[in-house]
Specification:
single chain; 185 residues; alpha/beta; Nucleotidyltransferase, domain 5; six-stranded mixed sheet; 39% helix; 21% strand; globular
Length: 185
């Protein structure tokens, strides 16, 4: 089965799941040739007893449009994550979780999948774009941030802090990196 790259972005109200909530999740399915096959998005109700982290709440105050977007059409986490697993399993290939940074986004997605559905179609695996950039750029990890990446890796897509927008943008970035990796001698 063909690998499908599931570029995923989450918006949250704090640094870790449990005490804080995942507010939204967006995923964009790309093939290696940069074909955008499908998308998924959900805005989630906050976890019972959870509250926003003060620093994250202060940051959200600077992003009013993104905040409004992630608080529309809220779903209970169990319903949203069940819908997500059903969607992932319907895809015609093997899902590979891709994120920037995977250490943050995968933490929330995996925790929510296991807590509310009891399984993860991704298993324990996540492809971190920053680590991939480190290898491509042959540089130190701390020098593999987006501002150090070549401009030709970026498509003219917005980074809005709306989960699906950012998943699409970062998926295109990943595919450009993948193409360069596969065409290097």
């Amino acid at each position: 089965m063909t690998e499908l790259y599931i570029s995923t972005d989450v918006e949250t109200d704090g640094p870790i799941p449990g005490p804080y909530s995942m507010l939204s999740v967006g995923s964009a399915v790309y093939t290696a040739d940069k074909t955008l096959m499908a998308t998924f998005s959900a805005n989630l109700e906050t976890l019972p007893g959870a509250s926003a982290h003060p620093k994250t709440a202060a940051w959200w105050a600077t992003q009013p449009e993104a905040w409004i977007a992630c608080r529309k059409d809220l779903e209970p986490p169990a319903a949203a994550m069940t819908r997500y697993v059903t969607w992932l399993k319907s895809l015609p290939g093997r899902p590979v979780f891709v994120a920037y940074p995977a250490g943050f986004d995968f933490l929330f997605v995996y925790w929510y999948l296991m807590r509310f559905v009891g399984e993860s179609p991704f298993s324990y695996s996540a492809l971190d774009m920053k680590s991939f950039a480190m290898a491509l750029l042959k540089t130190d990890y701390r020098q593999s941030t987006k501002r150090h990446m070549p401009q030709h890796w970026f498509d003219p897509l917005p980074h809005t802090h709306i989960a699906l927008d950012d998943a699409i943008e970062q998926g295109a970035l990943f595919c450009n990196m993948l193409r360069e990796n596969r065409t290097q001698g």
